Amino acid sequence: MSVDQQQAVAMTEGQASEGRTDPWRLTQRGVDAARAARNETLFALANGTLGVRGALEEGDSASDGTFLSSVFEQNPIHYHERFPGFTRSTDTRLPVAEGKHIRLRLGEQPLQVADAEWLDFERTLDLAGGALDRRLRLKTPEGHTLEITARRVVPLAERALLAIRFEVASVDYAGPLTLVSSIETGRQAVEQGDDPRIGVHGGKDLQVSDEHADADGARLTQRTHHSGVALVCAQQHRLSPGLILEGAAAGAGRVEQRFVATLTPGASVAIEKFVAYDDGNGNAADGVDAVLARARSAGFDTIAAAQADAMQAFWQRAGLSVDGDPAAELALRFNLFHLLQSAGRDGITGTAAKGITGEGYEGHCFWDTEAFVLPVMAFTAPDVARAMLMYRYRTLDGARDTARAMNHPRGALYPWRTIAGRECSAHYPSGSAAYHINAAIAYGIGLYLDASDDLDFLSEAGAEILFETARIWPQAGHFNPRLGGAFCIHEVTGPDEYTTLVNNNWYTNRMAQQHLRRAAGAWSRLQSERPRALQALASRIGLDVAEVALWQRAADAMYLPVDEALGIHPQDDDFLGKPRWPFPKREGPHRPLLLDYHPLTLYRHQVCKQADVVMALVLAGDGIDAGSKRRDFDYYDAVTTHDSTLSAPVFGILASEVGQEEKAWRYFDASLRVDMDDLHGNTDHGVHMAAMAGSWLGLVQGFGGLRVTAGRLQFAPTLPAAWNGYGFNLRWRGCALRVDVDARGVRYRLDGGDVLTFRHAGSDVMLTREREAVLPLAVPAPPKATFPRACDALVFDLDGVLTDTAHTHYRAWKRLADGIGVPFDLQVNERLKGVDRMASLDIILERASRVYSLEEKRALADTKNGYYVQEIASVGPQDLFDGVREVLDAARAAGLKLGLASASRNAPALLDKLGIAECFDYIADAGRIVRAKPDPAIFLDVAAALGVPAHRCIGVEDAAAGIEAIHAAGMAAVGIGDARALRHADAVIPRIAEFDLRTFVSP
Question: Is 370 tagged catalytic?
């Protein structure tokens, strides 16, 4: 395939034949070799045990692979300095025998698809049928034209079966065709570079033995070198008329069967290939011989139909829809499909961060399994959620071992990253110190129990996990006499991996509180409803009522402070005392800070990799008032880089709750297409399971307002401006609920079960099978700062607040844009309000016909500034808005300090011309501020220069970006201008003349 061919093709999304997006099908037309690995991830199939990447049967790909969730190798970790408790080895997922290959020979000539001319190619992931369809028309170097079609399924109904229907049709070729169906080995785990998000272990490939191939089938056995894992892989076939067995061979880690036919133009042959794997974790019916006998007897069509039925049943339980945005509907459905197929469903193997679609993170499971993926399954596929938790129960002894290694004599501490239950993290500051994983697992257990009321699970497994993990908190914390006996937890790391080894991480403390209460509640429930089971468990693990009382006491005394100055929850004891991240905002593709900065550089600043306090407010926000949540959102939004794919959906959910609808949409959109658009640049190594789950949570918890409080469902649905409507299905305690939202309101319908009670926008609703409930949309009331308030300083923007230079700026920008041939009008100019010069230039250049270098941009910015300076030459006091002098004089008479936070580098000169420079105690140097509004840097700079804490300042702005910056700085915000455009301000007045000091500032 030539470079021109590769560049001429592209990915499309579910395009129906008439050009509309089909929200049930992800379709790729043409092949881009540079994106081959990414597309192999996107088109992967799995069933919780077996994962098969989406490469071609007849081709070769260095990034291809097939995986079993249970197959891993154990590799030693080498330290130059190893201390007690450091983990000694890590587990690495390995690719297993590759069974998808069916290679072609025309006569004696092997067909190398990479050397052929690709005339037409299409690959489709059928979300409704749970299958991968593919068609390739090619012309060989010898001039023969063939068309290959294939359909592939990995059935949910079997433990580890791959079924393929593969057809070759001749367009103009006449002659012999050989299909070589093989099982191949020899692939090692890919070395994945220095990116710490991915993992670096390659290791040895699996040992091969017992290779055998004959007329009936082919098989081989693989074994790891150190971890004690073995598997068998075997294949059998069904042939169309015209195909016959030509021979078989085995050896050198490869087994094959060869089938021959004679093709003529217009004729075709088909082969059905069945590949079974046995990792020893199933029962007798899961052995390769039994599985292949069933598959060969049923045939591909029957297997594919059963898979479609299974998917139909899932979509009936977990259906979703988006009216007016089929691309978003497809992305949501695609994400949910991957969650279902990669989630651990046998109770033996876990749910890895990259699913079973690649080797990223070495195949490890993390805390996000329970914090993100499990909630989706609890509401859509409760049986899968239960199986995911049973994996944690199966690895409970490994968690006990981890606790002992960490010097805890009792209890269990789940490892930060693991496959088989052992800690695999070599970096304890951001790994083993993340004790919050215990709380995340307890959260998952609690949510599953709320959604299912599965008392058997609680009695047989859940309670033991809750009890053993709860025991760790009294050992990690203590009742601090210096804080009035508050329970404090020391030297832990929260979700934010840019801040490690801290005291009283707010997320950890809040989640530990919920964990301890959940454990105490489980004790009480079992004591009441399963006393014998509780007695047996308590006796076995040495638990008594006094220890349970200690949990309750620690929960009640948990240290969860509020910073009095800012009115926010501090991320930890020291976070708010650190300087903010001082480096300029990065341009270009997203690149995490951790790839370029030493961890200590990150640890020394107020910079968050991902949601931390905000995560606590989403997972455990009960009882926290809306005003506090809004202040937390504003503050942490400004210091978070979202370098983790876990971050955006969490911020989006809280944004919906606190009335930040634009940001809610933006964060939802960022989480929706993480893998489809490879937004973080590592989809090659597998999908991002938690981000995929986050998009569903963004729909249901964000826009739908779903919360579970005290074991009860709550909804507060809103409608994004970009959609006409949306809907989703939920499972809850045996009931099937459908929720549909549009501009007219919310429709709740009970499709299964007799009666369901829940809350809608704060009101109780009882729904029966015979009726629907139609209710109005929730209307979030964004919390506002109150006025008058204690205040020591006023911080003003310049343009649009004190004077109007907006049209002056417009004329300067218009002159520049005309000079370089870039369209520019008043509509674009509106986007420049509150934005600094370079950021404004970037907005204008969005319409440019070419890309400008940084040097060229700087030259253009200087040119614009020259035009602007010429324009303001005639400015004088007459250009002040009415009332400005009176407002400034009254403020100074009241003893308030005055500051100016303008993005204009010409602000000092302009104030001189306006005759008010002497009124200001400090004017920010815009050229020294490296991060533009809506970053709060300029407002924080002014507050620091004035010597006034930010919470004792009131900011005055006319632009939405400025209002956002003021709030992020921890100040109250007064907007000047249109109330709708500035609706997030704490107060809005139409003009500065109406700024009455008595209204806003307490005496």
Answer: no
